[in-house]
Structure formats: C-alpha cells, structure tokens
Specification:
This protein is an alpha+beta fold and 1506 residues long. It is built from 48 helices and 45 strands. Strand 20 (659-660) and strand 21 (664-665) form a beta hairpin. The radius of gyration is 42 Å and the shape is globular. It starts with a helix and ends with a strand. Residues 677-689, 696-741, 862-866, 1024-1030, 1265-1269, 1416-1428 and 1436-1506 have low confidence and may be disordered.
Length: 1506
C-alpha cells in the first residue's frame, strides 16, 4: 500500500497534522494527483544535487501537465493550471528548495504513520501538540490585531489634532495681525474666547492621545513579555526537537507575522511621537503634556523596538552537512555545510542592507575546548528577500567550511577532559541593523555543534546531539558534557523511535521499545521513570560485548536504511527480541515458522530463527549466523529467505522457512520483494545464487567457522573462484620474479597529462578508477574478453574481484593502515552499488577499457611528426637556457657573498691596525707595509667586482632573449594549442613547462636586481674599497633594464588555464547561458614565493570592447555577483584561482549604434578579462588576461549554432587581439581546415575520428556547386553554406548527438560506415554476397538518424534495400544491435536478411557482445515475455533493369509512412484476437496496396500465449 493511501486511513487527529504540512509551497492537490510518482523519486538526494533537483522539477511539471490534460472537471483543471504557474514562479530558479519541501513532507508523513502505530504519543510530542498551544496562538492573533487597530486609530487621532492645531494657529495669527485699535472690540473679545476654547480642547486631545499611547505601549510591552517571547522560546525548543527527529518544525511564518505587526505598530507609534514633537514646535503653552511625557514614551518605544528586533534575529536552519541532511549540528572538517538565518521583522527600509558575518566559537573562554577551528571560506553575506516564501528577509550560507588551527608548539591546549564527540562548539551570526535613526547590533548563535574529523565519529557525534537537545533548552551550554544529566526512559525511548521513523520510515512500537529497555537495563524496563546515564547509553560497553548500546543501535539503523528498508516498512522484522523470548513465541507454532530479529552479538546484523518438530515431538530451534551489510550487499535479504537451503547429511531438503511469525506464508509476505531477474540463455546450465547452511548431527566435530552459512554461490562457481583467488592474489602480491615487461597501467602513468586525461575519460561514470589503479596487475591478468560473452565466467570474475577487495581491506586493518591506505571497503560498496547483478556489463567495460588503453599506448609508440619533434627539440634547448641562467645567477650570488666576506675582512684589518698604531707608537714604521698589502687586496676585490658586473650584464642579455622567446613565441603557441584543444584537438595544453620557465626567469631577474643592490651597498659601506674604483654609472640602467624585463614577464604571466565552460556541456566550452553557472580558471605562471597571495584578480565582462558601440543591438551583460579572488597555490603547486560559481545576467538595455551592422545571438562574441596589479620597487603595472571569445545564449537550443561559431572562429583567428566582429564578414575556411575540426568532433564524442572516405562524402554534402570540384581538394567553404543557409552543421550535430546517446560503442569499433551516399551504397553492396549490409546515417533527417542497407539476389540480379531511418526516439526503446538481430521481413518471420556486416564480417562477430541477452522463461502471468522487434514488408523487386534500381528509402515518402503508422497502430491496439501479420495483410487492402516496392519499418511487440 502506498504511503499516501495509508495516510488517508488515519484518524482525524493525525489527518489534521498532515493537513498542516501542505500549503502554497506544496499544495495537497499535487500530493494527491501525483502520489505514486512523488513517492518513487529520490527527493533526499535531490536536496543536495542542483542538477538532479532541476530534472525532478521539470519532470514534476510534465507529470502535472499530463494529469491536468486528463482531468475532466473544468474547475479542477483550472486550479491545477494555477498551481503549475505558481510552482514555476517559486522554484524555477531554485529547484533544490522544492526538493527540500517535498522531502520534508514525505519524511513527516512517515513520522506521523509511525506515531499511529504506537499506542500513545510520547511526552515530548504531547507537549508540542496540546490544545492549549493552539488556544494560545489564537489569543495571540487577537491581541496583535487589537493593538494594530488601536495604533491605526491613534494615527487618525494625531491627524485630527494636527488639523485642529492648524485651525487654531491660523485664527491666532489672524487675530494678531489686526490693528491695536480693534483689539478691545466685542468681536475681538469673542474671537479670543473662541481661541481659548480651541486651546482647551487641543490640550484635552493631546492628553487623550498621550494616554492612549501609554496604554498601547504598555499593552505591547506586556504582549512581548508574556506571549511573544515565550512563543519564540517555544519555537526554538521545537526546533531542537525537530533537529533530532521529532515532529516537523512549523510556526515560523506565524511568528514572523506577529513580530512584523508588532514592529510596525511600534515604528508607527514612534512616527506619531515624532509628529507630536513637530506640533509642539508650532504651538505650545504652559503645562503642555507633550514635552512632559514624550521623552519618556520615546525611550520606552525605542527600548521595545531594540529588544523586539534583537530577538527577531534567529537561526532558521541549523548547520548541516548536505551529505547527512538528517543529522544536523554535526560538522566534519574540510566538508562544506549550510546554515540559514532569518530576520522575523519584515520592513521595506532594511531590504538588501543587512550584512551578516559568521564567527566560529566567538567569545569562547580559553581552555574550554581542546581543539580550535576557523571558517575557511567566505563568512560574510548580505540578507535578501526570498521570492519563494512570503518575502522574508534571510540569508543562507551554503559553502561554509571548517579547518582546525595548527599549533606551533605541538599541543592543542586543554586535552583529555572531553572526547571529540562530546566537545561542543557554536556558530555565531552578527549584523548591524540601522533604520529610522536607530542602530541595533544583532547577534544570534546556532545550537551547539559537534565537530568531527572522520566519518567514523558520526555515530558518537549524533548521540551527543540527541542527548543535548533532548535534555536542555539552553542555546549555548557548551560545558554540558562536563556533567551530563540523566534521561528518563520515557524521554529516551521516544527519541529512539524518532530515529527509526526518520531513517527507516517506521518507528518502534511499544513492544519493541520494551525489548530495547530490557536490553539497556534489564528488569527496570517496565518503569518509565527509570533514569539512564549518558555513560551507559553511549560510552560503556554492553556487558560481554565490545560495543556500547548506542553503537549497536546505530549499526542496526544503518543496516535497515541500506539493505532492509522494504522488509522493515512492511513490519516483517520483529527486530528487538531476546533468544529466550523468540523461543517462547515459536514453540507452539507450525514447523517452519520463523521470525526475524537483530543480532545481539554483532554490530549491524540480522538473523532468522525457525522451529522444527522431531519425530518424538521434541521442539528444535535453529538460528542462522547473522547477515551483516557485507553479506547483504551481495544478495538481497528477501532472496536469501526465498532460496535458503540446509544441507543435512549430504541431502538438500526443501527450504525450512515456511511461515513468517505468526502464520503468514513466506511467499505471501516476501513475494513482491524477491529480485525476480530471469535467467539468461547461454550454452551452460543456469546457476542460481542460493545461501546454504550445513547441519551436522555431531556439532562437536564441526569447527566454529563451519557453522555459518556457505557463500551464496554454486559449488562449481566456488571452485572456480577459489582457483582464481589462489592464482591471482599470489601473482599480484608476489615480488620474487620481476615482470618481463612493464605493466600496462604503469606505462600509462608515465604519459603526459593530455593522454592521461583520455584514460580518465574511459573510466568516467563507468568503473571506479581507484580500483583500476590499486588492482592494476590483478585486473590485467584476467581474460575480460572471454568474460564479456560468457555470463558464468563474468560472474566468477565479479565475485573474485569482490573477494579480492575484501581481502585487501582486511589486510589494511591488520596493518593499521586504514586512514592512510586506499579505502577498499568504499571501492567495494561503489562496485556493488553500480554493477551488482550485472557481471556481463562489468566484464564488457573492462574489456573495452583495456583495449582503449592499448590503443593509447600504441599511439605514443608511433613515430612523432616532424613538427612535434622540432617542438620537443626547441623545448629542450629553451629548458637548457633557463637552467643555465639559474646556474649563472647562483654563481654570481656566491661571488657577491664572497666579496662581502673579503670586504669585511679587509675593513676589519684596516680598523684594527689603525687602533694598534695609535696605542703603540713604535709600530708606526710598519704602517707603510700594511698599507701596501691592504691596497693589493683592495685591487683584487675591485677586479672581482668587475667580473661579477660583467657576469650580471651577460645574464641580463641572455634573459632578454629568453623572455622574448617565452612571451612572443612559446606563450602564443600555447594559446593557439589551447584554442584548438577547446574545439576537439588532442594537443597537449599542459602549462608545466611554461610555469617552470616563467618562474625560473622571474627568480633570475629578482636575483639580479637583488645582487646589483648588494653591490651598491658594499661600495658605500666598506671603507676598504679602492677610492679609485667607482661602480659604473650604468648600474641604475642595469637595474632599470632588469626591472623592465621582469615587468614584461609578469605582464604576460597571467593566463586563462581553463576556458569558461558550463558543467552541463563539458565538451563544448566557450558557450555560456544566462543564469547558469560556469567555471573558469586563471593561472599566474611566475610562481615564486614572493608573488604568493599578492595578486587579487577581478573578472570583468566585455572590458573595453569596441563592438559594444559599433554593432547594432549588441547585448550587454553583467556578472550576477562580484567575485574577486586572490591567487594562491593549488594542490599541484600552481599559483591559480578558480572561479567556480560565475553566472551572467543581461542588462535591460542593449547598446545603441547608428551602424547598420547587426549580428545574430550565436554570432555575437564576448570576452571575459581578468585584471590585477603588480607592484615592485616603487612601480605599478596593470596585468590583464583575456579568455577566448565566448558566445552567450539564452536557450539550450542555441547550443549547436553557438558551437559552430566557436569552431569557425578558433580555426580562423590565430593571435590576439581577438576580433569580436569577425562574423560581420566571416572569412572562409579551406576544406582541409574544416575537415580537421569536424573529425575532432567525432573523436571527442565517439572516440573515433573520420577517415578520408567519410570526409570525402561530407565534402560533397557541404561544398555544393563549383566549390565541390574534384580538381580543388582544398576548396573554400563559406560560413553561410556551413551554418546559415543550407545549415549542414545542424545535420552533422544531430548525428553527433545520436552517436553520443546511442551509438558510441558501434562508432568507436568502426561498425558504422556512416557518411556514404545512396549511390555509393548500391555500388559497394551489389558485388557482395546476399545478406551483406552496411550502416549509414540518413541524409534527410535533421536531428540525426541511422539506417542500414542490405543486398539480396533474385533472378541472379542484386537488389539493394534500405530501411526507414531510426531516430533517437526509436533507439531509446531498443538499441541498434538488438534491432539488427531482431529485424525480419513480414512474410519470413524466422529469417533475418542481415547476415554479414560490410565487407564480410559475420554479424555475431561485429555485434554479438552488444546485443541484449534474450529471455525464454514465462512471466508470472502465464505469457512469454514480450520481445520488441522491427519488421518490414517484403521488398518487391521492381520490373525495371538493375541499373535503374532506386533506393527504397522511407524518409522520402512521409505521407505513405504516416498512413502505415496510423493503420498499424490501429491493428496493434485492436482488442481483436491475435492473428499473424500475413493475415492482417489479407484483410487490409489499404496496407497491401501500400506494399509496393519499399520495405516499411514497423515496430511491434511479439507475444504469444504460454
């Protein structure tokens, strides 16, 4: 029964909870109409996968459209249309939000169903859902409404006072303006009296409004104190409970409404007080109440606003790793996590102004924790309005990441007090709120977090999170586990049940919880007030077991989630029952009755126990060794129960499992869960995977290890597997005899990065590359070619591979090498997750990959072209020059160091001798001799200086040549290779050589400048220098020259290493779609320590582009966000910055130009420039790097034309500056250029380029008229003929897409001839034996289609026939190899006319390994399985001579094809009894008349009664 049907059968109380889940964010109408489809999708995964969420969102709209079109009720159809439009508005830009909403609803439904299974609600859930809370919320709504109404009335009262005061002011000033002689008149006296009355009334109204304000302010104060703040605290408590699996968290929208209305009332009162202050300025009097009362009221209002706004800053979504969405508040270092904060007050004045900053462990007292962390990524974001909600102001941090601080002294601080999983941390959020003259510092923090460094710590961390949030509502008690409180069993049991409902879909009933209580504390389980300590729950081992209670329970949750979910949700697993209890339950049952329970002695194990009755009436109980996740990964649990056998004294009896407790027949319980894959047809006896147990009469003679179930495989398979392992493992691990030749994988590792990238593409999304690497020798020793066509051998190899991985894992455990060594356990899980049950597919993948590897190695061993050889030679010469420069620089550095030592020594001698002469006058006669010796040394030093200067001059001259070579030759050549690589060339675009050369030359230039400076310093410092020697005046010029070379080098050092590319189109870079993220990487080639973290690079779109002013309608774009990055070292040591989340938005206005020049969207070129500054020695220079020109599209259907522009431009343009207006007058290409790039496209997509024959046919297709003259093989191709008028490119692109999606294997193997005309096809086939066929692409299908033509002989004359082309739609139903094998003619259903692939390859040799295995066993309903086949009417040879035969190509007769399709669909859909195709021809004259001379392609399903 589906989940939604179960929901509909609940009682009213629970249905009200379900009703609360669905609102405008996800209407219940959709849940009702698409119930089955919604429950079948993986929404949990889509929450963290943007692309998957987008696909599900599109499919949801499609499903909704389908249901709407089938709806008969007009009103219901209209409502569904409105819902569809609302969903598109809300989630089109952020489908992951929709996935999160649906995932939450489904999870909460499961929790409600789980609670329905329990006899009563737990105390926590009762407290969160009592009727008092609902009454309190209604009262809150009333009070807020009354306050809001009172404030609105006060607004009117203030307006009335303002009008009254204006009237009074006018009369008073009029009275003052009269002459003094009139002031004693009666009229004047009456006017004064009237004014006095007005003033008295004004005074009364002022006092009245102030009194009302005072009442409302007190009411708001009371509301905040007595209700609003408690409601907020209640919501925060419910958030804690929801975080550990409790009821869905709701009520935040209601809270926001209360906060917003209250804040609006307070701000309105503040404005009213400001208005009263303005009135006082105009009119005041003695005992005026406003000046007396207004200041106090203003202070109270500001106080209330301050506390209201401060408390409205909340954490809406607690920190959570996307990889573990159901376990929030646990963060792993180095893994991204998300969190979200929200301001509950919604005021237009603060939109886009609040900047929120995150801080980890803010104000944490020293010594509180042993580890300290910091946020590695950007920790500041601006709040924004959410369009898909009710317009709340929030900000979501999606890419936060923690890193542990390193400790220089080797100690972390206060170690040993708490374990890692007990150490609590917090994440703080700060913002500054400014509005209407008020400044409020906002601050809030997350619930306490547990930071782990290894996934194995996740269970312990989750136990801490549960315990904390269960027992305290304090938001930041980080010392909680210093003395953790106890939990009552009634509280703990409820939370444990929530874990099962959250992770496994069904909670625990009262009996299961009672059994768990007995497991935890024995006889006290019946007492709900029994107190459980934290240590007993999570730290102490269960008596006699090497694990704690929680570790045991968590391993069971993991087992259910991964392997037992269907069985658990059907309530077939009793689960928590002791051995004594199970015997009491089974002893009175029928023989063969069994129950399922979790193992008490194994972590994450499940077992079954069945009852048997002996001949003497003795009751026997048998239990199998528990099945762990390793066993269940190889075989589903339901299949184990179905196929379980017991060997007793060599006899294999029937399956002992008959009835699931209490009396449910086994097949009735598990029938629909069996993995009922049909056996394959092979020339071997089929084998079935069955688990076996051996039962011996004498248990004492059986070793313990033999009492467990045998491996789930046949004895023959086990023997072969054992033979494989004994031989192959020894071969892999033995190192006694070195191999005679290098292993294939080791040879691949020595290739350059471009070829290694091709190897990576072989395994991408097909087979784990890690397994290929670590098991290379073992894999290369297997015969995968034979296994690819033999399922028995393939399954043996698959099992051997799994066992081998498990052996390596055990070896890692024994050698204590789990963390540092390869993760063989994960490799095995990946293999089982993707290829379990498909051993043939595994063998075929490895067979193909190994062959491709050999081809790559063979291509390397071929002699290189002259061009490549000369390039390698020039690289070696340049490398030698650079190394020589580095060596010379080091030598001069040593010389200058030596000079400094000589200067110091000579200077010391002179100074010391002078002092001695002054002290001892008798030594004066030796002065002359000493001076002569010192002078000789000074001359020597001077000569050495001249030599060093000469060396530095030579270094600068050589460096000048090297810099010119690098910037003017090597770098442009690399950019050209990158251009060609972008459009499919296999050229090496590695930057390793350039990076090394640029870095070394930069070091040389910096070293020369430093050495020149040292020479000057020595000359001015030491008095021993020869006065006659002065440094040449050219030294400053030398420094200036060296600096200019450095600036030239650095200015060219910034390059775009990876051109802009969207993730969805990795093989088509330089095409960007508005609103879609793309990535681009820049690299600084002069990678030396002095430049690290000195360059801040900013991307600019279309910087200084002249076309924006000269081309009419040129579109203008901006980045969606400013994204500057600092160049830093990556994992390979390169100085780079990756912009991974860039996207574009179009400006509303386009550029205006008087020019008539105009470009279409896909011909309009743009560039992205990256700018930074370089400062050195007081000089500043601007550095720029430009991407290759990009095409910006707004729809994916523009991709083919955009790619045509990219290819054309990159073939034509060879050097900077880039010509962005090239397509205003696009230059032509030679056919040689175009054919090369077209061949690259097929090589990229299908791993095989085009040969000369295929290119010749393409040339005739593209170059029409004179351009296709055979005398001009390098003829000219114009842009219009390629991509605009005839649009040959769209046809080619359709074929490329067809190959990529459906024909890649056949194209790679050369089975598809592809580009061959009909006339050429006839000439090739007519000389061949009957049944010879070839495969070619249709010339008339724009979107890509493939057909085959074959020859037969009648009356000794050859006749060539062709079938109607197969499009992508048909090939998605049945692969082309299956079509070829199942193709037949209508009158001869048993004869397939396709026998040999051209020229004479047997069909089985060419396509045998690609065809799908056929099934022969009948299905459960008594019918043979339906096999889709393609059938054609018999082709009738035309009466004309053979040389006038025309191809019978169906794509030229659309009308006839349509008639056939319509008529045949009527025949197939008819409810009449099944008749043969020949009889249909007899009774359908219309169809028979259409069967003239061409075979018609008809797609049917064969079926017959069993």
């Amino acid at each position: 029964m589906s989940q939604w049907k179960q929901i509909q059968q609940l009682e009213i109380r629970l249905l009200e909870q379900v009703d609360y889940l669905y609102d405008d964010n996800f209407p219940m109408d959709i849940r009702q109409g698409l119930a089955s489809w919604i429950e079948s999708q993986d929404w949990d995964t889509a929450v963290n996968d943007e692309s998957m969420a987008g696909v599900l969102f599109t499919n949801l709209l499609t499903q909704l459209e389908r249901v709407r079109s089938q709806e008969q009720n007009f009103l219901q159809r209209h409502n569904m249309k409105i819902i569809q439009q609302q969903l598109q508005l809300k989630y089109a830009t952020n489908p992951a939000v929709m996935a999160r909403v649906i995932s939450t609803c489904l999870r909460e439904e499961r929790r409600i169903l789980s609670s329905a299974c329990m006899q009563e609600q737990g105390p926590l859930e009762k407290s969160l859902q009592n009727s008092v809370a609902f009454e309190r919320q209604k009262n809150m709504d009333n009070r807020v409404g009354i306050i809001r109404g009172s404030v609105q009335l006060m607004d009117q009262a203030v307006k009335y006072i303002e009008d009254m005061q204006d009237d009074f002011d006018f009369r008073y000033k009029t009275l003052q303006s009269r002459e003094s002689t009139d002031r004693n008149s009666d009229v004047m006296k009456q006017e004064v009296t009237r004014l006095q009355e007005m003033l008295n009334r004004l005074d009364f109204k002022r006092k009245e409004i102030l009194s009302k304000m005072d009442v409302v302010i007190k009411e708001i104060d009371d509301l905040m104190t007595s209700q609003l703040n408690p409601e907020l605290q209640d919501w925060k408590r419910r958030q804690q409970i929801a975080a550990i699996g409790g009821p869905l968290l709701t009520g935040l929208e209601q809270l926001q409404s209360w906060f917003t209305l209250t804040a609006q009332s307070l701000f309105q009162i503040k404005r009213q007080l400001d208005k009263l202050g303005e009135l006082v300025v105009k009119v005041t009097y003695e005992s005026d109440p406003i000046p007396l009362q207004k200041p106090q009221m203003e202070e109270r209002v500001k106080y209330l606003i301050y506390h209201l706004i401060k408390s409205s800053f909340v954490v809406e979504k607690q920190p959570c790793m996307p990889t573990h969405p159901q376990k929030p508040l646990i963060i792993k270092t180095g893994v991204q996590f998300t969190t979200k904060v929200r301001l509950l007050v919604k005021l237009p004045e603060v939109d886009y102004q609040l900047k929120v900053k995150t801080t980890f462990d803010k104000d944490l007292p020293p010594g509180r924790v042993s580890r300290q962390f910091f946020i590695l990524t950007n920790n500041t974001k601006v709040m924004d309005i959410e369009d898909y909600s009710n317009g709340c102001l929030s900000v979501e941090f999606r890419h936060l990441q923690l890193k542990e601080k390193k400790y220089i002294n080797g100690t972390k601080g206060n170690e040993g007090l708490l374990s890692v999983t007990e150490e609590l941390h917090s994440l703080s959020f700060e913002a500054c709120f400014t509005v209407q003259g008020l400044t409020i510092d906002l601050e809030t923090c997350s619930l306490p977090l547990v930071v782990i460094s290894n996934v194995s710590q996740l269970p312990g961390g989750w136990a801490s999170v549960m315990w904390y949030n269960l027992l305290t509502d304090e938001p930041r008690n980080l010392a909680f586990f210093g003395n953790p409180p106890r939990a009552s069993w009634s509280q703990l049991s409820e939370v444990l049940s929530w874990q099962f409902s959250t992770f496994a879909g069904r909670g625990l009933n009262k009996e299961q919880l009672t059994m768990l209580g007995e497991k935890l504390f024995g006889q006290h389980a019946s007492c709900s007030d029994y107190q459980v300590s934290w240590s007993k729950f999570s730290k102490e081992n269960i008596p006699g077991k090497p694990f704690s209670f929680w570790m045991w329970l968590d391993s069971i949750l993991e087992l259910i989630k991964k392997h037992l979910l269907p069985v658990w949700n059907e309530n077939y697993i009793m689960g928590f029952v002791s051995k004594e209890m199970e015997r009491a339950l089974l002893k009175d049952k029928e023989p063969g009755t069994f129950l399922l329970r979790f193992s008490e002695s194994h972590l994450g194990g499940i077992t079954f126990t069945w009852v048997e009755h002996g001949d003497n009436g003795e009751v026997k109980f048998n239990s199998v060794e528990p099945y762990t996740k390793n066993r269940l990964s190889a075989l589903p649990f339901a299949d184990i129960i179905r196929d379980y056998k017991v060997i007793s004294d060599g006899v294999v009896p029937e399956n002992p499992l008959k009835f699931l407790y209490p009396d449910i027949p086994k097949d009735e319980a598990f029938g629909r869960l069996y993995n009922s894959q049909p056996s394959k047809v092979h020339p071997y006896i089929p084998s079935t995977l069955i688990p076996i147990s051996e039962m011996r009469s004498n248990a004492s003679t059986t070793p313990r290890s033999c009492q467990s179930p045998e491996p789930p495989m046949t004895p023959g398979e086990f023997d072969m597997l054992n033979e494989h392992l004994c031989f192959d493992i020894d071969t892999h691990l033995s190192d006694k005899e070195p191999p005679t030749k290098m292993a294939q994988w080791q040879a691949l590792l020595k290739l350059d990065s471009a070829l290694q990238s091709r190897v990576c593409q072989l395994y991408e999304r097909r087979f784990p590359k890690e397994i290929r690497h670590y098991l290379s020798t073992w894999i290369e020793n297997q015969d995968w070619d034979s296994a690819a066509v033999d399922e028995h051998r393939a399954r043996t190899c698959f099992q051997a591979l799994l066992v081998f991985l498990e052996e390596q894992w055990y070896r890692s455990v024994q050698e204590n090498n789990i963390l540092q060594g390869p993760d063989f356990s994960r490799m095995k899980d990946d293999l089982l997750g993707h290829l379990q049950g498909e051993p043939l597919k595994l063998a075929l993948i490895l067979s193909e990959c190994l062959k491709e590897e050999k081809q790559i190695l063979a291509s390397v061993s071929q002699p290189q072209s002259c061009n490549n050889s000369s390039m390698q030679q020039s690289w070696r010469e340049l490398d030698d020059k650079v190394n020589e420069l580095k060596r010379q620089t080091l030598e001069t550095k040593k010389e200058i160091k030596t000079l400094e030592g000589l200067n110091e020594k000579l200077d010391y001698i002179l100074m010391a001798w002078q002092n001695k002469v002054e002290e001892h006058t008798d030594m004066a006669q030796s002065q002359h001799i000493v001076d002569q010796e010192c002078q000789k040394h000074a001359v020597f030093i001077t000569q050495r200086k001249e030599i060093v200067l000469h060396q530095l001059v030579n270094i600068l001259k050589q460096t000048e040549k090297v810099v010119a070579t690098l910037t003017d030759v090597e770098l442009p050549e690399w950019k050209r290779r990158q251009q060609l690589a972008c459009i499919g060339s296999q050229d090496d675009t590695s930057l390793d050589h350039l990076d090394k050369w640029f870095s070394t030359v930069a070091e040389v230039l910096l070293g020369v400048c430093e050495q020149l400076k040292k020479l000057q310093d020595q000359n001015s410092k030491y008095s021993s220098t020869d006065p006659a020697f002065c440094l040449p005046t050219s030294i400053p010029e030398m420094e200036k020259f060296g600096l200019s070379l450095l600036i030239k080098l650095v200015t060219n050092a910034l390059v775009v290493e990876k051109q802009p590319v969207m993730q969805k189109f990795p093989q088509r870079p330089l095409i960007l779609k508005t609103g879609v993220q793309f990535s681009i990487t820049v690299r600084f080639l002069a990678n030396i320590p002095e430049f690290k973290c000195r360059f801040r690079v900013k991307p600019v779109f279309d910087k200084d582009v002249a076309e924006a002013k000269t081309v009419k309608g040129f579109r203008l774009f901006d980045f969606n966000r400013d994204d500057c990055k600092v160049l830093d070292e990556d994992t390979d040591g390169g100085l780079m910055a990756e912009f991974g989340h860039m996207s574009l938005k179009e400006r509303k206005s386009r550029s205006k130009s008087s020019s008539a020049n105009h470009l279409v969207v896909t011909e309009e070129l743009h560039i992205i420039k990256f700018v930074t500054e370089f400062q050195y020695a007081g000089q500043t220079c601007n550095i720029e790097a430009s991407s290759l020109p990009v095409v910006v599209i707004s729809s994916t259907n523009q991709v083919p034309n955009a790619w045509a522009s990219i290819m054309w431009w990159n073939m034509v343009s060879t050097s900077e500056p880039w010509d962005l207006s090239l397509f205003l007058n696009p230059p032509p290409l030679t056919w040689k250029q175009l054919s090369q790039v077209l061949s690259w496209q097929f090589l990229t997509v299908g791993k095989r380029g085009l040969d000369e024959i295929q290119l010749f046919m393409l040339r005739d297709k593209i170059m029409v008229g004179a351009a296709a003259d055979d005398d001009d093989p390098d003829g000219t191709v114009f842009w219009s003929s390629f991509s605009k008028n005839e649009n040959a490119w769209i046809w080619i692109d359709g074929i490329l897409d067809l190959i990529k999606k459906h024909l890649v294997d056949l194209w790679r193997d050369g089975s598809i001839m592809g580009f061959v005309s009909r006339e050429r096809t006839r000439l090739l086939l007519q000389e061949k034996q009957a049944g010879t066929f070839l495969i070619r692409f249709s010339e008339s299908s724009r979107d890509g289609a493939v057909t085959f033509s074959w020859v037969d002989h009648s009356n000794d004359e050859p006749h060539v026939h062709a079938v109607q082309p197969y499009t992508k739609k048909e090939l998605s139903v049945l692969p082309l190899p299956d079509i070829i094998y199942r193709y037949s003619l209508a009158s001869q259903r048993s004869r397939n006319p396709l026998v040999y692939l051209y020229p004479d390859i047997p069909k089985d040799t060419a396509f045998g390994r690609y065809k799908s295995p056929e099934t022969s066993e009948p299905s459960g309903d008594g019918y043979h399985r339906r096999i889709p086949s393609f059938i054609s009417n018999d082709p009738t040879p035309p009466p004309s001579p053979p040389n006038e035969i025309h191809m019978m190509e169906m794509d030229n007769d659309l009308e006839r094809s349509a008639s056939l399709s319509e008529l045949f669909s009527f025949i197939v859909d008819s409810p009449a009894p099944v008749v043969s195709w020949e009889s249909q021809l007899d009774i359908c004259p219309t169809l028979a008349s259409l069967q003239t001379s061409s075979p018609e392609n008809l797609f049917v399903d064969q079926f017959s009664f069993s």
